[in-house]
Amino acid sequence: MEQISGWIKQQLSNPQVVFLSAALVVLFVTIVYAGNMLAPVFAGIVIAYLLEGIIRRLGILRLPRVIRIWIVFIAFMVFLVTTIFWLLPTLYTQMAQVVAQIPSMLSEGQAALMTLPTEYPDLFSQEQVLEIISSLRAELTDLGQKALTSSLYGVTSVITLLIYVILLPILIFFFLKDKERILHWVRDLLPSENELAMQVWHDVDRQIGNYIRGKFWEILIVWIASYITFSFLGLQFAMLLSVLVGLSVLVPYIGAAVVTVPVVVIAYFQWGLSNEFYYLVISYFVIQALDGNLLVPLLFSEVVNLHPVAIIVAVLFFGGLFGLWGVFFAIPLATLVQAIMVAWPQSVEPTED
Questions:
Q1: Contact 17, 344 (CB under 8 A)
Q2: Which range (198-207, 237-246, 288-297, 339-348) has the least confidence?
């Protein structure tokens, strides 16, 4: 206890440590208790990080920053309008079609499962198979209805939609236009002795920017590659499934494993164990292999490498705390923890004369 007490006193005697600790506590409390209210602000910061990278790359055109901001912002608005008026309705329609096909899928699955007691009488009894079928029917039907209801609520909630459609572009524009003024204002609020906090901030700022931009391009590339592959092979619900595959990269390791289930299940009920089914499965796993072994190293070469166990723990921990945002920012938050551990002042042992 004396050693712990001495360590605490030593740390509290350092004003930079006190300031960094207070800043982290304020940030944590703000996210936990005001995260839902400030979600458009957080979303605006994330997208501004993404667009800032594009604005910097346009610097090769030697255009003034204001013009580059307007070019990128208009392109973003076109993307946003396309998403709202074309992509979301398409996804909702295909989701409704999937839910409508669940009963027929269950019937086909039931017929396949009923052959198990005949083929493997030592492993399965008819009562066990009927119980499995009943449980699957209830779970899948409930899951489909929940997904459809959630997507309907998310798309048709007028208040939420208006908040994001109106406020989000405004926030993004001013985050980009007045970036230096905002950062200067924040620096003026900081105490003079803030080297430790600034060291952590510069490291995390670089990591978060690289991560957000890399993750966006990874989602986009995996989505497009999956959609082209699924459409070429004639897989039903190609847009819905390709979007799910693209978004699955937000959750390292776990996401790819989870999204494999709907892709394989829909392919099986469409083609059975035919050549088309095997072509689809092989193509899908080739996309996953290229993503993990080629795309990720290229896009995230500047991001601090974290051990796979640390990534999984970060996804579970921060996802449990902050939901979807916690899953998305799991790696940057883990990087924040790592940056703090690296920058934290080490205790200096007194030397003996």
A1: yes
A2: 339-348
Q: Which of 347, 249, 263, 350 is nearest to 296 (CA)?
A: 249
Rg (C-alpha) for the chain, rounded Å, is 25
CA pair distance 18, 20, nearest whole angstrom:
6
pLDDT at 239 over 90: yes
The CA–CA distances, whole Å, from 139 to 92, 132, 135, 143, 248 equal: 21, 11, 6, 6, 22
Backbone conformation region of residue 235, classed left if phi is above 0, alpha if psi is from -120 to 50, else beta = beta
At a CB cut-off of 8 Å and minimum separation 6, what does 314 contact?
306, 330, 331, 333, 334
Spatial separation of the C-alpha atoms in residues 126 and 113, rounded to whole Å:
9
